[in-house]
Amino acid sequence: MKKQAGRATLKDVAEAAGVSISTVSRAFSSPERLSPSTVQHVKEVAARLRFSVNPVAKALITGTSMNIGLVVPDITNPYMSTLLKAAQTHSRGRSIGVFAADTDDSARIEREVCHQLAQQTRGIILCGSRMSVPHIRELSEMIPLVLVSRVVEGIPSLYTGSTPALEELVDELVDLGHRRIAYLSGPAQSWANKQRSRAVSRRVTARGAEFVKLPPTTASYGDGRAAAGNVVESGATAVMAFDDVLASGLVEGLRRLGRLVPDDVSVTGHDDVLAELVYPGITTITGQSARVGQLAVDWLLEEPAAEGDTGTTRTEAVEGRVVRRGSVAAPP
Amino acid sequence: MKKQAGRATLKDVAEAAGVSISTVSRAFSSPERLSPSTVQHVKEVAARLRFSVNPVAKALITGTSMNIGLVVPDITNPYMSTLLKAAQTHSRGRSIGVFAADTDDSARIEREVCHQLAQQTRGIILCGSRMSVPHIRELSEMIPLVLVSRVVEGIPSLYTGSTPALEELVDELVDLGHRRIAYLSGPAQSWANKQRSRAVSRRVTARGAEFVKLPPTTASYGDGRAAAGNVVESGATAVMAFDDVLASGLVEGLRRLGRLVPDDVSVTGHDDVLAELVYPGITTITGQSARVGQLAVDWLLEEPAAEGDTGTTRTEAVEGRVVRRGSVAAPP
DNA sequence: AAAGGTAGTGCAAACGTTTGATAATGTCCA
DNA sequence: TGGACATTATCAAACGTTTGCACTACCTTT
Q1: Chain B nearest CA to A85, separation (Å)
Q2: Best exposed site among A149, B82, B94, B331 by fewest CB in 10 Å?
């Protein structure tokens, strides 16, 4: 916002059109209360003056802005950038602006950023939050929230449900003959990571195979590559990674150690981003980031309607499907 | 912004502290004009009431907000998401918020979005703008602008200068024996695309080799893969792609046609994103997106200082360097 | 022809700040 | 003791909207 010499205000338009300020305001906000001729006249003058209502003044008086916040641990992750794109595009259609914030995987930054956003947005979409439950609760007292990839009782939550798909994958591996299956963990504080780890662990042991949990990472390509050593050492013949970024890195890391995927070790990912780009293509689970992003926006904007606190809060899993590519085979 | 029952205002703090509204305001904005004891007292009360200044009221009165806009053609492109991350992180350090907008490669959407942002931000970083020069000029009358990956006379512009690096690459290819070199175009309206195309074309012909220009694409992975047919048909033994995303797709497309990189055809990219992730690693040019993002924020926030219109507008190229990986070899 | 509606418009307060002008305290010196 | 001068705090206007209420015409009813 420049101290712009000439940006037309309601007052300018009112004077030019020979009507009162309120009339101009109404011509835009509730034209049905004005005579059609007045509306037309005012709008013409307004167009001539290139007038458009000042969103910050409007926000101040109405107490609600046309912006939402989207906070993510790492915008560089294709899952997140796809989600952002969908959320933003969807919001634009409803003339809503999107504040994007990257927390760099830090709960502290996340908290700061959310408080800052709370004062100038109508709601926040919190993706893969690393914050403690009390902190999330506290925040939700101040501002409508929609959680993505995390579930907190009493707060609308949205995530990709992948337990069935993960089990399907485990079964496939076991059936192929794998007796020792590893899970390559993502960020330690990630709710989704815990879910996936648990789903895999259970199914693997249920099927009578051996489960190995590989230590937490930051879900970056580099960490995936670096994990190759651990994988080899673990003796696992198949590794299911937290996500595709990690899986891609792992494939490259294994290659450098002279291990080929899928001949020497099978690898699976999650989210279906990147999985197609690398070679061999990685068998993965669709993350539906675009759909999730769009849904999150809808929920956030509808939420006030559910003000009645019917006691039922929405929690929904967008189910992921297995996508088979070339990274899975029988053990050597 | 909820119609929150209790969000403390200056007035509340003033009453609780037994001072006037202005005093509370000054305790935060210009504490040196108050006695130290008053400041301390006010701040204590404010903290107790969880007060923090309402940014929208502040923006209204001061006529300048603490937010900037960042608009990009496609946030999904790793170059852009890295840039966004850097810009956002850097802004946070200066307590500035970032509006992110994805224009989906459309000049029309870009224009709409910019006008909307102009009213609630202090400036806009316009990346890879597809808008016409007059439209950009018009916009820059309304709001401070910093252009990225595009140069318009009179407006601060920032881009990765890659002509020398591209020439280096061309030389390398020619020296390896390539006699027919193709350039795989990016988006038709992209300024950067024109620059790169021209640089390559000139150098290739200057070195006595044949130049082939492959038709525009959207710089997506799919388009890169689809371009493989054209490449084979063109008879080129080396192709320099607009960016890494395109290059990665091309490598995969060629593989599907039974052509191997680099044995059958050499491929280069641009930006050094993704280039490391695929196999074989792609020889590319660093895009320095993080540095560019950070610099853009600095320029935008400093710009008012240059209000004096000294006639010199800043235009700077962050020079890209060649990064050699495995995608280049002698022709078959 | 008086009473009652209704449609169209204007007035003025309010939103939560900032900030220039102004008043209320002292303190110091003659 | 009385002024001059800092120092510190308050007043009130302003930013650009929205919106409840009041007002003016004019049109129906009876």
Answers
A1: 6
A2: B94
